[in-house]
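HUMAN:
Sorry, I am quite new to this. Are you able to go through these amino acid letters and fold codes? The numbers rather puzzle me.
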Amino acid sequence: MEDTKRLGIPLLLILFSALAVKLIHRFFTFSFTPTLITFLIVCSLFLFGMVLNKSRKRRNPAVFKKVLAILVMVLLMLMQMGYFTLPFMKDAFDFFGVDGFYINMIYIFCGYLFAD
């Protein structure tokens, strides 16, 4: 039963997130729909990372890494939505070949780090 709960919750999160994005994309045709979809995807990836970190040990009460995870997530999300750009980060992303896939992995890692 523990394995079903441990593996089922991330699977349900994936399914519900995919359904929500599909429904919003289909039924909302407003100018803010792409922003809403990006926000929903970022939140889903962050929650997925949090759900994956179900360690049995006592959680670390340190606040610094939680704040850092939130700041990195918000910064990347605002950059992905196009609200602002930081030239040195864009150059660094281009140099290392960071694209949407790796940014999504960073969102998951931030959720994992936040839950630790």
In short: Residues 2-27 form the longest helix (26 residues).
